[in-house]
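Progress note, sequence design subtask.
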């Protein structure tokens, strides 16, 4: 019999990714989102794009949440119909709450459109409130999030697409490398702190300086053991 049980930990590991792509499917799923996905994937990055990464039978909301939480960096592709999607806006809030950087890509809109009263995004938010499917507090949270993200330095997807895609990829790679170096530094610092503690314990354990080990071992010898 085939064992098909998958633990929550194993499922979570399957959803770990370098990059999460947030986008409005009606506008850019088959165009900009797919181009960005394939370009980053070709550089051996783990990229989450719902239509490419989700598998039949996976719980959609949980999978999205885990992918956002695990991502080192997020891409938000802002297009004309983006703010019509409550799901896009919920994802954006989760991305911001995760603390990972958010790189905006503007397609057919400008940064000020995300925060401008009377603009396309403002009108979409007003529709959410009028339909009463979303409470006013949530709509205002979305508005505030859009406003903050609109000031993030990003990319206009126009002109030579190949050049823009490579610029996006270079930016993503730099962020991921910076995070990797930071994690390595933290591990090294942790190792140094633990080393001092371990040396102290060893010296106490062997009763450093008593008749049994005098002249046989020094603190420098102990440090040498840890470095080898």
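Output:
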């Amino acid at each position: 019999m085939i064992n098909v049980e998958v633990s929550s930990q194993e499922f979570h590991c399957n959803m770990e990714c370098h990059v999460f792509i947030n986008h409005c499917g009606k506008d850019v799923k088959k165009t900009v989102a797919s181009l960005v996905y394939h370009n980053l994937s070709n550089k051996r990055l783990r990229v989450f794009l719902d239509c490419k990464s989700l598998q039949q039978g996976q719980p959609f909301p949980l999978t999205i949440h885990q992918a956002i939480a695990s991502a080192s960096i997020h891409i938000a592709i802002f297009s004309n119909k983006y703010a019509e999607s409550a799901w896009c806006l919920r994802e954006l809030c989760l991305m911001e709450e995760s603390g990972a950087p958010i790189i905006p890509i503007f397609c057919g809109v400008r940064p000020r459109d995300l925060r401008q009263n009377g603009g396309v995004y403002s009108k979409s938010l007003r529709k959410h409130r009028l339909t009463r499917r979303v409470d006013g507090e949530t709509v205002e949270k979305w508005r505030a999030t859009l406003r903050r993200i609109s000031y993030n330095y990003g990319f206009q997807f126009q002109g030579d697409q190949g050049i823009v895609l490579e610029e996006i990829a270079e930016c993503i790679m730099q962020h991921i490398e910076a995070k990797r170096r930071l994690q390595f530094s933290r591990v090294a610092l942790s190792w140094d702190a633990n080393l001092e503690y371990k040396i102290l314990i060893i010296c106490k354990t062997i009763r450093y300086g008593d008749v049994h080990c005098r002249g046989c071992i020094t603190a420098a010898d102990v440090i040498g053991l840890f470095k080898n």
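The beta strands are 19-22, 47-48, 73-78, 102-106, 155-156. Work on this subtask will continue into the next period as scheduled.
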